[in-house]
Amino acid sequence: MYKLHKKLLFFLFICKCCHCFKMITNRSLNLGTETAFSVLAKANKLAEQGKEIINLGIGQPDFLTPEHIVEAGIKALRDGHHGYTQASGIPKLREAVCSDIFRRHNVEISPENILIVPGGKVIIFFSSMLLGDHDREILYPNPGFPIYESAIRFSGAKPVPYRLKENIGFSFSADDILNKLNKKTSLIIINSPSNPTGGIIPKEEIDKLIEGLENHPNTMLMSDEIYDQFCFGETRFTSLLNYPSIKDRLIILNGWSKTYAMTGWRLGYGVFPDTLIDAADKLAVNVHSCVNASAQYAALEALNGPQDCVSMMNNAFKKRSKIMFEQLNKLDLISCNDPQGAFYCFPNISKLNFSSLDFQNKLLNETGIAAIAGTSFGEFGEGYLRFSCASSEESIKRAIEKLSLLLSNL
Ligand code: PLP
Question: Contact, 271 vs 101, CB < 8 A?
C-alpha cells in the first residue's frame, strides 16, 4: 500500500512538472544569457574560500562614479525627486543628450526622439521587439554581445550572424553583410567599438555598407555605440549618426554605464527615428514606467559637468590595454590583436589544445584568473578568450605572469 502511494505521488509530481513545462513559452526557454555574470559568481565563491582571484571577467569600469555625479544623485533625492517622471525621461536630460550628441558629432537631434531607459541593454530588447517577428531576419555581429542573439530569438525573428574577422582588426566586411540581406531582413545590429573584440569598424567599411543599403530601403540599423568614448587606437571611430541618408532608419544605443562608470545606476538612452519613437515610448510605459528619478538627475550632471573623468578613464584603458596586448603577445601559442577601443583584449588561443570554455574554466580553477570564453559571444568566438582591461596595471601584469606559468606547465 505504501509503495503504491509513493508511486502515485511520483506520478503526480511528473504530471506537475510536465504541466509547468508546457506553461512556459518556447521563446522564454530560448532566452540566452551573459556568461560574465556566472563567471563573476563563480569567482566570488572561490574568493570566499580564500583563493586569490584576479577578475578580468566582468565588463565594467573599475572606477567609482565621479563624486560630482554621485552628489547630484543625492541632491535629487534630498530635493524630493521621488516620484515617477515622464516615461521618456525628464525633458532636461533628453535636451542634454541632444547637446552632447551635437557637441561630439555635430549632428542635430530633437529631444522628442530620445528615450531614457534603465541601461543601454533595454534598447537592444526594444529594437528587437519593435522590428523582429516570425517572418523576419535580424543580422548581428558574432563574436558579439550575447544579448543581441538572445533578444532577436525572443522576438521570434531569425538571428543571422555576420562574422567579425581577426585578420581585418575584428571588423566586418560590408560585402559580407550586404550578401546576407534579403526582403525579410528588418534590422542590422552594429557595435563599434566592440565588446568582446576591442575592434573598431573603419569608416571605409561603414561607407560601403551605407551605400549598399540604398538598395534595401526597408532594412533598419541599430548602432550600439556604448563604448564610443573609449577609443585609443589608430582606427578612428565613426558614429552612424554621421550618415544623414539613413537618419530615418537608424536607432542609436548609448548610455552612462561605461562612459561615467555608472553600471549599477542603470541608465541608458536610445535615439529612435520618428517612425519608431512612439512605439518605443509605449514599450517603456508597459515595461518600466520610467527610469529612477534621482539617477536621471545624476545623468544630467554627468553630461553637463566636467568631462575630465572620461578622458582619465580613456587614458587608463589605453595604457592597460597596451600592457595586456604586449604581454599576451610575448606568450608562446597566444596572439592578440591591438585593441582599438572599449576595454577588452580578445587573444587567439586556438593553438592551445583546449576549447575556449575548457580553458576559461582551467584558468579560473588553477590560477584564479577570471576571463570569459570567446564562445560566450557566439560560435565564431571559439578559439578566443576575452580579458577585461578594466583592472589595475598590477592585476593585469600578475594575471599574465600566472597565465605564462600555466602555459609552461601544459
Ligand atoms: N552593449 C554592449 C556592447 C555592452 O557591452 C553592454 C554592457 O556590457 C551593453 C550594451 C549594456 O550596457 P548597460 O549596462 O548600460 O545596460
Answer: yes
Note the pLDDT tens digit of each residue in 101-130. 999 999 999 999 999 999 999 999 999 999
Our mutation pick for probing the ligand 1 site, out of 195, 343, 377, counting the most ligand atoms within 8 A of Cβ, is 195
Question: Rounded to the nearest whole angstrom, what is the distance from the C-alpha of residue 406 to the centroid of ligand 1?
Answer: 31
Contact 189, 148 (CB under 8 A): yes
268 — phi, psi (to 5°)? -160, 175
Q: Is the CB of 119 under 6 A from ligand 1?
A: yes
pTM of the full structure: 0.93
pLDDT digits (tens, 9 = 90+) for 366-402: 999 999 999 999 999 999 999 999 999 999 999 999 9
Q: Is 120 in the pocket of ligand 1 (CB under 6 A)?
A: yes
d(CA 79, ligand 1 centre) in Å = 30
CA distances from 321 to 24, 326, 374, 392 (A): 43, 8, 18, 11
Cα–Cα distance for residue pair 94/282, rounded to 1 Å: 17
